[in-house]
Amino acid sequence: MWSSIRINWFDETIRTAGADIAEVTAMIDLYINDTNQLVGSITDADLQVLIDGLEEESSDDQDYYITPATIDLLGDGRATEHLLSLLRQALGTKEGVEIRWERR
């Protein structure tokens, strides 16, 4: 009985680790819409911050207009520093920039 419990625990650990690995490797790329320049990659959690925090024109919308105020709004503790850094990089010195995301 003991070995059966250990095997079940071991199998569950492998399944859990596999799910974690799949989540980490499923990346989403951010692009500057006008130039198709790759800004960087974000996680599903970062994408959810964008979806929850920004206006979408439709349920399949994959682009957002980013301004300094947008970055400040997302910087209230919801967004990771990585996401904020990518948004700042995309914005540069412009007043606003349209970005889009694509799953790999």
Describe the model.
- The protein is α+β, with helices and mostly antiparallel strands and 104 residues long.
- The chain has one domain.
- It is 50% helix and 21% strand.
- The chain has helices spanning 2-25, 44-53, 68-74, 81-91, and strands at 28-32, 37-42, 63-66, 97-103.
- Strands 2-1-4-3 form a 4-stranded antiparallel sheet.
- The longest helix has 24 residues, at 2-25.
- The radius of gyration is 18 Å and the shape is globular.
- The termini are far apart.
Features:
disordered N terminus; alpha+beta; 4-stranded antiparallel β-sheet; 104 residues; 50% helix; globular; 4 helices; 4 strands
Q: Could you estimate the helical fraction of the residues in percent?
A: 40-55%
Q: Roughly how many Å is the radius of gyration?
A: 18 Å
Strand order across the largest sheet: 2-1-4-3
Integer count of domains = 1
Concise structural overview:
With 104 residues, the protein is of the alpha+beta class.
Could you outline the blueprint of secondary structure elements for this entry?
Layout: H1 2-25, E1 28-32, E2 37-42, H2 44-53, E3 63-66, H3 68-74, H4 81-91, E4 97-103
Antiparallel strand pairs: 1-2, 1-4, 3-4
